[in-house]
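Much of our argument rests on the idea that a fold can be written as discrete symbols. In the encoding step, the backbone of a single protein was reduced to a row of integers, each denoting a local shape. This step matters because it turns folding into a mapping between discrete strings. For completeness, the protein is quoted in full, as a sequence line and a line of structure tokens:
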Amino acid sequence: MNQTKYIFVTGGVTSSLGKGIIAASLAKLLQARGYRTTIQKFDPYINVDPGTLNPYEHGECYVTDDGAETDLDLGHYERFLNVPTSQANNVTTGRVYLSVIEKERRGEFLGKTVQVVPHITNEIKERMQLLGNTGEYDIVITEIGGTVGDIESLPYIESVRQLVWDLGESNSLVIHLTLVPYLAAAGELKTKPTQHSVKTLMESGIKADILVCRTEHELSSDLRHKLALFCNVSKDSVIQSIDASTIYDVPNLMLEEGLDKVALKKLALPEKNTPDLKHWNEFLFRLKNPKHTVNIGLVGKYVELQDSYKSILEAFIHAGSANETKVNVISVHSEYIDKENAADKLGNLDGILVAPGFGGRGIEGKIETVRFARENNIPFFGICLGMQMAVIEYARNVVGWKDANSTEMNEHTAYPVINIMEEQKTITDKGGTMRLGAWSCTLEPNTLASAIYNGKAEIKERHRHRYEFNGAYFNELTTAGLKPSGVNPDTGLVEIIELENHPFFIGVQYHPEYKSTVANPHPLFVSFVKAAVKKKSE
């Protein structure tokens, strides 16, 4: 293909309808037909990136190989497509305005009055076409965050209108995702919210080419006809998106509805072949027909909001399918764990994961959790802060340094076994300044880590942290039995710690959950679930 085609996904009526899942599912189908496809997300908030947002505000912050702190939807894109995303796949209003203001300061607008139209919209359009202009993709799907009618979304909607006009006939299409609510009192589905939403979109100069309708009940033929008539689309362009038992069902549901066929027809592209979803459906079969069940405790301090640990929860789904095991993830708030109640809260678990996080809240509960897992031979997995808590717990309860801590929690601890990284000490800005992105790690042979990674000598994993294992205590902790089994070859940073005389005890400084996909479940999660299954059977 010599011209990249563009698909824009907008949303109406309400947020959280699943634009990201629809975009990822369509991309999966187009990819399975042989088209090189990528997805990008444009977010209307003014933060430059979600890196400084509390997980309660926006869910987890997803990190790419190139160190971009991005929206959690990029995690869905990678999990579905098994293709890495980058800085270019996520753009926020903050980033757009920052770029335009920097250009104005450099004098690039030559005395012009800088305005939303054309300067902001030109910047948005340029970024919308960045990936398409690389020549690496046949189709670029762009998800517009928020809902149509929001004040903050207006520049994006206007940019889409202009770009559709710029690109010309058959080179772009607009999918509008909307809600068809069911009114129990009346016993019927209502189309009026969708009609209003499409009307709002048309007031901005954009005609929806395809309607994807989120619904709890089947859309009848009459209802589809009504929606097509009043929303000015063809009847085959009214696509039903019914509630599914898992997000991984959605590509098959969209295939049944013909979303990919309608999109290709509107883009004047050949259908090529029937989508090859053999491996995808094998994954789904194992997921839905498990032979085992395990209970894994997810111990963290943002457990009230599921999206705070989205990638971890999805990695457990991938690992569960690989092990033909249903993984029940039981959220446990670390703030409410202490020595007295640890057995009650954690005693019935088949495995314990201590989650990542920042700040001092709930830290003692995490340390107590590690102690309980270590002393009771429960499979343990610590990620980032979870790994750091394992080091502190070992220093306190095995080595005997009762005051051992991280300088993040206590700057004056006598044993700062976790310390701020040297290059972080002079940094004052909080945004985008952590150790971010993919870094190398050399694995020690004949260790649990080496076995999990199939004997590889070196791996690359994604990081997001400011604090690290303090090398000053390396020898003493190692002599006491804490085994560093993975080290960064350039910095000497300890990446992985493990214990030998334990069924499964491993902590990693990086975030393995970011790299787990349907096609490639992460080996750490697969091995951890396997250990939990073994523990339960014993």
In short: The chain has a mean pLDDT of 90. The two ends are 57 Å apart (CA to CA).
